[in-house]
Write a structure and sequence with these properties.
- This protein is α/β, with parallel strands linked by helices and 179 residues long.
- It is 33% helix and 24% strand.
- It contains 6 helices and 8 strands; from the N terminus they run βαβαβαβαβαβαββ.
- The strands form 2 sheets. A 6-stranded parallel β-sheet has the order 3-2-1-5-4-6, sandwiched between helices.
- The two termini are 27 Å apart.
- The chain binds S-adenosylmethionine (SAM).
- S-adenosylmethionine (SAM) binds next to strand 4 and helix 6.
- S-adenosylmethionine binds next to strand 4 and helix 6.
Length: 179
C-alpha cells in the first residue's frame, strides 16, 4: 500500500492543487491521501465526491499533526523534494526497502514552504530532477516508476460512472452498482 501525505494546504489558495494531488495519487496507485495544513472541509468533500462517482477504494483524511503521521508510519517514508538525491539512482537501490516489496510506503509532498524537519524525519529525500516544478508532477512520475506502470491495470470499484474510451469525443456510461 502506498499512502500520500500532502503538507501545508492553504484554504482558498491551494484548493485546486491539493485536489490534484489527491486525484493523481488515486489514479497512479496510492491507496490514500492525508492532508495537513489548514483544515478545508469543502476541498476534502470535493475529493470524496470524485471517489464516490468514479470509484475507489481511496481514503481521504485530514491530520493537523503531520509530524505524527510521519513518525507513526510503519514503513519507509519518502519525501519528494527538488533538494533530494536523484530518485532514479535510489529507486533501484531502495528495491529491498520498497520497490516491489510488501512494505507500506508513505510518500510526502510539500506545499509552498516545507519545514526543514521534514528532511530530517523522512527516511529518504528524493528528487524528481533537481529543478523546481510541482507536487503533482513529482508524485505522478514517482508513482509511475514505483509501480513500474502497473497502475494502468487498476480497476476502480463501485464507480457510478466510467469512461467509455473513444477516439471521437467524450463518452461515459453509468455503471450498475445495485448488486
Ligand atoms: N520551495 C519549496 C520547498 O521548500 O521545498 C518547494 C515547493 S514546491 C512548489 C511544492 C512541492 O513540490 C515540494 O515540496 C515537493 O514535494 C514537490 N517538488 C517540486 N519540485 C520537485 C522536484 N524537482 N523533485 C521532487 N519533488 C518536487
Amino acid at each position: 500500500m502506498v499512502e500520500v501525505l500532502r503538507l501545508g494546504h492553504r484554504r482558498g489558495r491551494d484548493d485546486r492543487i491539493s485536489t490534484h494531488v489527491a486525484l493523481t495519487a488515486r489514479q497512479f496507485g496510492a491507496s490514500s491521501v492525508t492532508f495537513s495544513g489548514e483544515r478545508d472541509d469543502s476541498m476534502l468533500e470535493s475529493v470524496r465526491d470524485v471517489v464516490e462517482r468514479w470509484g475507489g477504494p481511496f481514503d481521504i483524511r485530514y491530520r493537523e499533526d503531520w509530524r505524527n503521521v510521519i513518525r507513526d508510519f510503519d514503513g519507509p517514508v519518502i519525501h519528494l523534494t527538488m533538494y533530494g538525491v536523484p530518485y532514479y539512482e535510489d529507486i533501484d537501490g531502495l528495491e529491498g526497502d520498497f520497490g516491489g516489496s510488501e512494505d507500506d510506503i508513505l510518500v510526502v509532498v510539500g506545499g509552498e514552504k516545507v519545514p526543514s524537519e521534514v528532511f530530517e524525519i523522512a527516511d529518504y529525500n528524493l528528487a524528481i530532477g533537481n529543478q523546481p516544478h510541482s507536487e503533482v508532477a513529482a508524485l505522478a512520475v514517482f508513482l509511475h516508476d514505483l509501480f513500474q506502470g502497473d497502475w494502468t491495470d487498476r480497476e476502480f470499484e463501485d464507480a457510478e460512472i466510467e469512461v467509455f474510451p473513444s477516439e471521437e469525443g467524450k463518452e461515459t456510461r453509468k455503471t450498475d452498482t445495485s448488486s
